[in-house]
Structures are given as structure tokens and as C-alpha cells.
Known about the structure:
The chain is an alpha+beta fold. It contains 16 helices and 30 strands.
Amino acid sequence: MGKKDFVKGMEAGAKPFEQKFKELSESTEKVGEKINSRLDGLGDIMDTVIDDLSDMQKKELYHLNTPYDLKEDLDEDEKEILAALLLRLSEFTENNEYQKKFIRAVNAYIEITTPQAGLDISCIENIENVSSQKILMQTAMEYLYLADGDFSFLDDLEEEVFEHFCVNRKGIREIEGYIEAVSNAVGKEGIAEKYGFVPEEKAEEGKIDADTFRLYKEATPYDLLEDLSEQETDALCAVLSALAEKTEPDELQIRYLEIMKSEAELDIDSAKGRTPEIDGIETDAQKIILQVAMEYGFLGNGNYDFMEDELFDDFSVNKRGIRQIKDMIQKVCDEKGIDGVIEKYDYMGVDEEAYGQGAKESGKAQKPQFPEDDGSDISEACADQVNIHHHYVVLTDYLVYYDEKVFGDQRKLYCVHKKTGEKREIPVNVADKDKIKACNFCGHETYLYFIDDSGIYRAEISEKELCFQKMNADLSIRRKYSEEFFPQCNERYLVFMGGVKTTYFGGETEKRILYVVDLDTMESRELLAGEDYSDESRWAYTASEFTGFRLMGNMLYYNASSGSEGHCIFKYDLTTGEKEQMAELTFSNYDCFNPNDYVNDTTGQYGKYIFCSQDKDSNNEKYLREDCFYDCIDMESGTVSSVILQGVTNAATFSAYHYVYYLLKNASLGRYDILTGKKQMVMKNTKAVSYYDEGVFRKTRTPLIAKSEIQLQAVGKWVYYKEPHSYPEKIHKIQIDGAVCTERKFEV
């Protein structure tokens, strides 16, 4: 057999196996594809596991590699230096997106909104606390590391920056290790987010929108873990236990009790059989306990019949407070269903920045706010300190007033604690104290603002040291200044009146103009009312004339002329710049938004209502009348109504909370509730009215009511007034508690 015959024989013998080999190869390829697919899937699973582990371990990772707390371990001056230092360091680097995010997170965490520019870095040498220097050193190194991912900046910026720090080489190596540990685990993104990281898993899992979060925070204006003492917490547990014993809890109530045990850490089971002790608990705490009890009961039956039980007899919360709780429970149910009453406690204690920042930047965080301050949180000790000092500023824990009884350098600014009545002086370092006026102060929460010709000043009014600091606001748009600014503010905006010089008919005058300052960016802008008329126009003056304004959230309501069309109420959205005319005004209520130039407050605001007391002193004969009346504006609907106080004639009026007070010539003092329409006689005979003699032979004493001589003011549950022409000064105090009103002299 030759070679060719051998090859042919092999080929012939292999042919029967060719199909088998082909089938086996295809089968092997399929198995390989399946194996590769499984391996790829396993890789995805491993990536997911790693991501999940990273999220769970981030809090611990940041804690281990940041052995301090910027907010807790730095004092206020050091926080200011840190914010200014980061701003100064941005001049030495490209300031990429990671670095920008890092600066925003740090400033938000230490609550510095306006870092000072141009810091002299050598000032760090004056910080005696070595730990504070090390904190600043690590934060600066973290920021600079985000530029190139290495530590070459230590050599590059040795003279300009790091030679001013008293941190040894060992400390620097330790900081480098901290930074590299975070970078290796979560990269630059992790370093950039570490001070803005929200470790609460519930905030991540819930994924509710910002509006829902704000609804829940509004419906739960307290933190059961923080706002109740041990005694008050025990009372709450006893109340819930007592309610649970009376009727078998249903499914919703069981869920409610469970969330109270888990989120509020309430030991309800241990309170079984214990009688709730409500007497002696302060009103604010009683209201919290009552709201929780009402929510629990409502979840069972959908009504409030259970409140007839004697268990609720010991609560001292008034009817208005109870109505507010009911309204808020109903609002949550209407918008989020009955489950929302339970779900909202999932977010108790969660920082609002977790949800609010994005909404705030988009302009949705601020909605029209209609505050309902009724003075119920003001103690008698506090009210006695403030008494007839008008235009006081209401903050979260303090009332602030300016003592106008003296002049010049003797005038002083005070803050008085609402609960304790403790009074402290607030230093105001302004050269010309004669220009300091009470109508140039305003405040929101813990911040007090003061405006004068040179700029805007802010002080935080708290248990800490009080000190005004000038804010870095651009106010160059003002060319001619008024002495009275009547500012209003909230957490986002500061609005005040100013003036600019204008020319018409060949002469000069000053137009009132509103100025709006964004407290986040410190940018200011001018807001003109009415239409845009040229200075040569006949309406150049009146078209931009404000008579008053109210700031509510991001909405600005103001009263202004509109050319030849007369006075109107406008609504202006400070976020979008949209303007809307709400209502036209008659002559009688031009002053509805007016800032008060007099001693007695004639305009008031409560909830959605703006009201202005009017009397027969109007200059227009059409409105001369003996009866007193007030004009009321519903800020939601824009409707304007006038109400005559029947039987109240020739009276001097002033406003407080949701009341219009009136002092009659017979020296009696009454009040009208704008919410209920009911009148109440507060005192039948006061000493607030002065008299003069008439007649030559038979003299008669005639009562005199003049706004310039009458000094009355409501503070909390008390009305104070100065007895006319008394020397030494005599101040009387009237306590108002339902239908029971008592008066006594108050020693100044």
C-alpha cells in the first residue's frame, strides 16, 4: 500500500466521525458561552455587593478617617477662618467640580453662608488650639488633594500656606493616611461628599420628594428625642399606654405604636397601668404630647370622639391649638393618605438639607408662608421686660427690642429669653447711634438683622456670645438713603425700603424703592412698583411709590400705585420675577401694608390675613365716620373687606396677633377677634385716657384720645400701657385669660 492509498484510507475512515466532532465543538462553544455569561453576571453581582458595602460602610469610613467634627470641635471664629481659608486656597488651584462640591459641603455643614474674601493666611498662627490647627490643616489638604490626587501641593505651597500651621511631620503623615484611605475606598467623589454625606438610611430609602418632606416637617414641628424631657417623655408613654388599654388597637394604631418605639425610642410597655401626670408640664410640651395622642386616636376611628375621655381634662392647650392640630392631621391625610400620619415620623430628626437643598435651588422650597404667632410662647417674665417697647423683633427663643426711652449713646439693644425672661445687652458697634432706630431691625429664627446707611449687619441671638458682623452685600445700587428702612426677612430673603434721587418737573425728589437681598448669594436688586415711567412723565413719582409690603416665603406682597389706575395690591415672586395684581384698594385701606411710624401698631398680620385699623381721622370726608372699622385682606384669595365695629365710636385702636384693640373715651379697653368676629371687653375702667378741663366757671373734665399720647402694647397674654402724664412713670399691666381680665400696676 502506497502513501497516497494510506491517506485516502484515513480520510475515508474519518468521515463518519466528522459530524460528531462538529456537533461536539458546537456544544462546547454553547457551554463556554453559558459559563462566560454566568461569570459576567457574577461580576455584576460582585460590583453591586461592593457598592452596597460601600454605602453601608461610608459613615464608618468617614468617621475613622476624620477624627473630629467641624461643627462641634471648632468655635465660631475658627469656622469663619476655615471657610475663608478654603476660599483663599481656591486662588492656588484650578478649582475643579470636586473642589467646588467640597467647599459647598463644608460651608453648609459649618453653616457659613458668606465666607470672608482675602484672608491673610498668617492669622492661623494666632490660633492657640493645636487641635483646631490640625482640623484646618486636614480640611485644607483634602481640598487641595482633589486637584491632582497627590500631595505635591505640600511643597508647592509651603511658604504661602503650610508654614503657618503648627502641625509636625508625624501629624502631616497621619493626615495623608486618612486622605488616601478614603480616596482608595471611594475615590475623589467620596472626599468631596464626606461633609455633605447623609448617613440616615431612611432618607435614602424613602425617596420622598422635597414638598412631601416639608409637609411632614410642618406637620411634625418637634423631635420627640430632643424636645421632651425625661419627665415629659414618661408622661407621653403613660398617655399612649392608657389609650391603648381603653380599646384594642387596630392595625394602623399598632404600626403607630411601633414607630414610636423604634424612631422615638418610647418605652410604652413599661408605662402600662401608670396614671399620666400632665399637670406641671409646660404648655409647649403638653401640645406635643396632645398631638401624638390625637394622632393615635384619630388612626383608630377617623374622628376625635375619644377626646371626651377624662384623660384629656388635664391638658391646658386652648381650643385654637387643638384646632391647629386637627387641621394639620387633616392636611396630611388629604395629601398623603392616612398612612402619612405614621410615615412622617420616619423622617423625624432627618436634616432638612437631605431634601431641601435641591428644592431651594430650584425655587420650589419657599412657598407663601402665613405665620400664626399668637404670643403663647412668651412668659410673663419676658413680657415684663419688653412691656411698652414697641417694634420688638420676635425670634425663635428671644424677643429683641431697642430702648428708645433715652437718646444718643445711651440707647441700648436687648434680647430677652421667651421662657426665662433673662435679659442681655446686644452690643451694636455703630459710630452714630442716633441713626439706630427700632424700625431698622428685623429677624428670623435665630438671626437678627440691622440696616443703616453703611450696610447690613447680622447677629446670631443664642446662648453664645452676641456680636453683630457686617455682611458682604452689594448695596451700591442705593444712591440716596432714607433713615428708616422697615426691613422684613426670612431664611432666604431680606427686603427693605430705600430711596433714590429722581428728577421730574425740573425738581428733585426721592422715590421709595424696595431692595431685595438674597441671603444665600448676598446679591441685591432693586424692585420698582407699578409701571416703568420715565422721569419726564407726570407719573414718575407716584408710579414707583410703595406704601408698604409683606414678605411671605418667596412671595412679596406690596401696596403701590399703578399710574393713574389708583392703588393696588401686587404679588411678586422673588424666585421667578413674576408679578400679579391681586386686588384694588379704596382710599380707606391704602395703609394696609404701611410700616408703622406711630407708637401704637395700627396694622397687623395673622395667618393669611392682613388687617389695618381705621378711624375717623381719615382726610377724605367720604370716610369720616364715628364708628371704628378695620380693613381685612385675605392674602390667598386677594379679597378685601371692611368691617365696622358696631358700637365702638371715637376710639383709638391698635393691633396685636389676631385682635384689634380699641380704647374708648370712657377709658374702657376692648378687643375684636378678626377670626371669630366676637368682641370682648377687656377692662371697663383703665387709666390710659388723659383729660383736659373745659369751661370757665363750671369746669368739666373732657377725655382726650390722641395717638401721640397713648402708649399701649400687647406682649404675650398681657396688655401694657403707660399712664398719661404720670411722673414718675407708671406702667399698668392687664392680664388677659379668656373672660377673666385683671389689672395691676407694673413697677418699671
